[in-house]
């Protein structure tokens, strides 16, 4: 269709692009029509992968209009593209003016066929058939006209028309907010519960008969005993009769018990409603407690937390055999004030041999989202530091003042860049940096000096040195003068204990533990190493480096804690 519409801009939106389509590819296609000003393929800010749409700007609005008429649905790298005018004002896109919704489309109808069908009624700003991940039609689409008059004409003419052998529905577009507004649900099936055991089907029919014609009544019976399960269903001929039964009979006493009457629901509806009710009921009063000592059971947990208010439940989670504590549990109070007071007083308090972690219980998806946000904030804060970042993924080197000639030391495994449990001796927790202590110099990748540590001294003059080039490049620039040097002996427990501070001991132990944990848990190695260094004494940590069975047991415990969180 050749449009008489005068465009107000020269910018086009181009959608349905393959991920590999670049600005250069689009330039070759669109510059054939007219002189292109610029092209921008929109990309994910983190991965830089294409979002499958782009904006093409022409110097001349007439060229943009010609491109829309001639290139719409043209295959680019084998896939038809979808072109429409770029609409910068979101209020115009979302207002619904001129927007038409079409459903019950044949699977063979694509963007072009939909455009050809509806273009007879006016100028189309955009046209789309919604598809799934396999690029197959979902059977519905949208057409956005320049004016509401065009949309009204399309609705009047096409609604109910047969297209490709199927009668289509065409109506005004409604936003998700409008569609989500509650409407009265019509139903004919009524669910009853809290029935007395002696109630029969005939008695229930007698109760319900005044409301209208009943098509069926069924009281659910136990298969073994044949006795009533206490609930039933009644199906009415009209929705009004069912509605009246629910409004009038619900809560009335029937055979000595208050009767519940409500709309019969599908299982998925009922589960969603129960879940929402549960989350609403216990929001702000349910506490999550972790790092619980193995000696604490349900009764002890209740006793410890009872001083802050009335507890409705207290449970320590157990393993599958219900014998061993998983180290975390839940305590539920009757009011948010009681729960808040318990969090304030108990978080960090020593109970048994461990400090408790106490917080309000949250849904797993909410907790995960918060943790991801916190991680991103920490990462951004680290990036804002004045120190320049070093070689990505490189290990952290602690180089004391030179005492003996350096020899080559092959690092077994580089420590992860954002290792939360990394040795705490790194100033400011800035990883991926080469740190120089005293008069020492940064070493090439894989090198460190041997010999005793200089009395464990950590001069205050230690400053981070931003690596100008990747450490691996430095290593290639310097001759390795270690052909005849002996390898450094593995640290012993006594040598680690001889270190003057726990920070330095953690550094040595972390270098031993991390590669061992990385062998079985490469993605979690950093977290697990940090957890072990924070929670175990030096002797036990060293024992883990010598006993794989003990280490595997601790790794499993750490994974359980991470999964619980």
From TrEMBL:
Region (Disordered): 430-488
InterPro entries: Nucleotide-bd_a/b_plait_sf, PABP-dom, PABP_1234, PABP_HYD_C, PABP_RRM1, RBD_domain_sf, RRM2_I_PABPs, RRM_dom
Function: Binds the poly(A) tail of mRNA.
GO terms for MF: mRNA 3'-UTR binding; poly(A) binding; poly(U) RNA binding
Superkingdom in the source lineage: Eukaryota
Protein name per its UniProtKB record: Polyadenylate-binding protein
Biological source species: Dictyostelium purpureum (Slime mold)
SMART domains in the record: PolyA (SM00517), RRM (SM00360), RRM_1 (SM00361)
Record's subcellular location: Cytoplasm
Domain PABC span(s) in chain numbering: 489-565
The RRM domain, residue ranges: 10-88, 98-175, 188-266, 285-363
Composition bias, Polar residues: 464-486
Alphabetical keyword list: Cytoplasm, Repeat, RNA-binding
Main location: cytoplasm
GO cellular component: cytosol; nucleus; ribonucleoprotein complex
Comp. bias (Low complexity): 442-459
Family: Belongs to the polyadenylate-binding protein type-1 family.
């Amino acid at each position: 269709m050749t449009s008489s519409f005068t465009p107000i801009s020269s910018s086009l939106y181009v959608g349905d692009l393959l991920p590999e389509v670049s600005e250069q590819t689009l330039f070759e296609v669109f510059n054939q029509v007219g002189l292109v000003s610029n092209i921008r393929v929109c990309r994910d800010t983190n991965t830089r992968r294409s979002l499958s749409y782009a904006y093409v700007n022409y110097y001349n609005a007439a060229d943009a209009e010609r491109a829309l008429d001639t290139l719409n649905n043209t295959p680019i790298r084998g896939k038809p593209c979808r072109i429409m005018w770029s609409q910068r004002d979101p209020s115009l896109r979302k207002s619904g003016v001129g927007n038409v919704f079409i459903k019950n489309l044949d699977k063979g109808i694509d963007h072009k066929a939909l455009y050809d069908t509806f273009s007879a009624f006016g100028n189309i700003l955009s046209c789309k058939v919604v598809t799934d991940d396999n690029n197959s039609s979902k059977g519905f689409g949208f057409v956005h006209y320049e004016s509401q008059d065009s949309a009204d004409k399309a609705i009047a003419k096409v609604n109910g028309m047969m297209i490709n052998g199927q009668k289509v529905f065409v109506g005004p577009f409604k936003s998700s907010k409008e569609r989500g507004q509650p409407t009265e649900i019509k139903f004919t099936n009524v669910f009853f519960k809290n029935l007395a055991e002696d109630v029969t089907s005939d008695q229930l029919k007698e109760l319900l008969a005044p409301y209208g014609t009943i098509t069926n009544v069924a009281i659910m019976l136990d298969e073994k005993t044949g006795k009533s399960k206490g609930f039933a269903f009644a199906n009415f001929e009209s929705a009004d009769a069912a509605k009246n039964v629910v409004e009038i009979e619900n809560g009335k006493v029937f055979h000595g018990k208050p009767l519940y009457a409500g709309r019969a629901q599908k299982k998925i509806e009922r589960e969603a409603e129960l879940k929402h009710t549960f989350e609403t009921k216990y929001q702000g009063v349910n506490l999550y407690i972790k790092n619980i000592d193995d000696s604490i059971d349900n009764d002890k947990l209740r006793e410890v937390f009872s001083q802050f208010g009335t507890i409705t439940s207290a449970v320590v989670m157990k393993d599958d055999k219900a014998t061993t504590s998983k180290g975390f549990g839940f305590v539920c109070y009757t009011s948010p004030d009681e729960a808040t007071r318990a969090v304030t007083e108990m978080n960090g308090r020593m109970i048994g041999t461990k400090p408790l972690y106490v917080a309000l219980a949250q849904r797993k998806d909410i907790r995960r989202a918060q943790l991801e946000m916190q991680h991103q904030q920490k990462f951004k804060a680290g990036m804002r530091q004045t120190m320049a970042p070093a070689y990505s993924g490189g290990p952290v080197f602690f180089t004391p003042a030179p005492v003996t000639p350096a020899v080559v030391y092959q690092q077994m495994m580089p420590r992860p860049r954002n290792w939360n449990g990394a040795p705490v001796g790194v100033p400011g927790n800035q990883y991926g940096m080469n740190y120089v202590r005293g008069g020492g110099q940064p070493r090439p990748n894989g090198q460190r000096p041997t010999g005793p540590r200089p009395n464990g001294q950590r001069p205050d003059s230690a400053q981070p040195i931003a690596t100008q080039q990747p450490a691996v490049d430095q290593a290639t620039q310097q001759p390795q003068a270690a052909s005849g040097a002996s390898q450094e002996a593995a640290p012993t427990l006594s040598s680690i204990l001889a270190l003057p501070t726990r920070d330095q001991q953690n550094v040595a132990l972390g270098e031993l533990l991390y590669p061992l944990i990385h062998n079985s848990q490469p993605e979690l190695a950093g977290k697990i190493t940090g957890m072990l260094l924070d929670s175990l004494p030096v002797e036990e940590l060293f024992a883990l480096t010598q006993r794989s069975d003990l280490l595997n047991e601790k790794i499993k415990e750490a994974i359980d804690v991470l999964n619980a969180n």
